[in-house]
Recover the amino acids of this structure.
């Protein structure tokens, strides 16, 4: 765990415990707006569309960048981090969905590229794969996450369709 402390206007300080894997805290995120988190992914494309927060997991981002490098094609992210409150509005997974962990993205992709990306992601350790390959091409995507297997609650690896 990493301790981040905030100094208030008076002499008291508040300690805030943050998971060491949280790649960008809200305080730092405001300074990085529009900048690259990795060599191919920006803060803006991964930030929550509702709150503006971007709390992507560092290990997940390293894995996603490795996947992007090996895929050797652009990966357009349509959804990255989601705050719990925003996730309730846009997903059936509620306050605790994969995107709220900072360990999930939706990638705009279809056809043979989608199949190739899925195969590579599976080989590299991604564990959750949601497929939406119907409708207009500009709305088709694959969800990728690397959440752990939790017996009886969250089986992994897991594949589903929308």
């Amino acid at each position: 765990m990493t301790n981040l402390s905030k100094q208030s206007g008076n002499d008291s300080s508040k300690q805030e415990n943050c998971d060491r894997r949280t790649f960008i805290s809200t305080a730092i995120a405001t300074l990085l707006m529009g900048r690259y988190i990795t060599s191919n992914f920006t803060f803006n494309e991964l930030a929550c569309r509702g709150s503006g927060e971007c709390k992507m997991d560092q290990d997940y981002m390293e894995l996603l960048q490795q996947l992007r490098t090996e895929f050797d094609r652009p990966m357009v992210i349509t959804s990255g981090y989601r705050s719990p409150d925003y996730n309730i509005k846009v997903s059936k997974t509620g306050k605790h969905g994969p995107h709220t962990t900072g360990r999930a993205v939706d990638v705009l992709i279809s056809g043979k590229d989608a199949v190739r990306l899925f195969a590579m992601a599976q080989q590299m350790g991604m564990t959750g794969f949601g497929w939406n390959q119907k409708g207009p091409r500009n709305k088709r995507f694959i969800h990728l996450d690397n959440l752990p297997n939790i017996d009886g609650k969250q089986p992994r690896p897991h594949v589903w369709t929308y």
Summary: The chain has one domain: 21-161.
